[in-house]
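Translate structure to sequence.
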């Protein structure tokens, strides 16, 4: 009985009693074919105009279609089709290393296969099921822009832009951003008239020309803080009024009047009952 050949890699299957004296050579060839299928790499030129290039699966010898990794090369001037025979079952890593803005379709002889777009000079992980070539979709690389930290945002990538030197990544439980590590107030320019106070900021208040009102935020949350300092030592003659803006101050529904010379203090918000509390005075 003569040798037969395996359906996918075309290994030579020797019949009992056949190929006397040739078993060693044939076995070594079969092992080389297996190595090619497991770890083989080959660059295959498909240069030229629109055409079909058939990858080979010759019986009992190594051939380009049996490689694990195939890189298509050459300058293409038309859309390309690359085929493997029907009936072959195999896994591939394919790289489109061609130059030229044309598509490259990889398929079985009678299938529709997978197509590299004209600008796609990347890699694909594919398998043939004997009828057609199937794309094993690879995960998309992270998006975003340069110098962003990427994170999973409900199944897609989100980005946090880098802060400045010395800042750390912080979160309020909902969003994240870079901020200063000092933990203190962000001090603002001297205030000489009525103003709206913002959470996390500190204010030097100059009442030398008249009384000033600082209005607190309307929707504070636990731990929000704001600091104030008497800039000119005139709070005793021209008071600073801290307008509560609907929230209690020290547990009372009244604005806070500051009449102490050189006063410096911080208000910290706790809840709707006590509202803003004096951290120091």
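Result:
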């Amino acid at each position: 009985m003569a040798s037969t050949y395996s359906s996918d890699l075309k290994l030579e299957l020797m019949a009992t009693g056949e190929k006397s004296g040739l078993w060693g050579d044939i076995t070594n060839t079969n092992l080389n074919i297996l190595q090619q299928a497991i770890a083989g790499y080959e660059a295959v030129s498909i240069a030229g105009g629109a055409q079909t290039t058939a990858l080979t699966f010759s019986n009992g010898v190594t051939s380009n279609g049996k490689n694990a990794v195939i890189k298509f090369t050459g300058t293409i001037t038309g859309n390309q089709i690359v085929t493997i025979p029907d009936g072959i079952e195999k896994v591939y890593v394919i790289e489109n290393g061609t130059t030229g803005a044309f598509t490259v379709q990889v398929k079985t002889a009678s299938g529709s296969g997978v197509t590299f777009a004209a600008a796609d000079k990347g890699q694909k992980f594919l398998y043939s099921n004997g009828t057609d070539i199937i794309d094993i979709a690879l995960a998309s690389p992270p998006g975003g822009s340069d110098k962003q930290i990427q994170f999973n945002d409900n199944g897609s990538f989100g980005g946090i832009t880098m802060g400045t030197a010395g800042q750390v990544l912080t979160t309020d439980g909902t969003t994240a951003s870079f901020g200063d590590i000092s933990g203190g107030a962000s001090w603002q320019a001297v205030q000489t008239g009525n103003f709206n106070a913002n959470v996390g900021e500190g204010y030097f208040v100059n009442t030398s020309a008249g009384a000033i009102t600082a209005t607190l935020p309307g929707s504070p949350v636990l731990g929000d803080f704001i600091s104030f300092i008497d800039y000119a030592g005139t709070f005793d003659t021209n008071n600073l009024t801290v307008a509560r803006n609907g929230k209690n101050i020290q547990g009372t529904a009244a604005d806070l009047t500051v009449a102490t010379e050189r006063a410096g203090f911080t208000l910290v918000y706790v809840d709707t009952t006590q509202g803003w509390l004096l951290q120091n005075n």
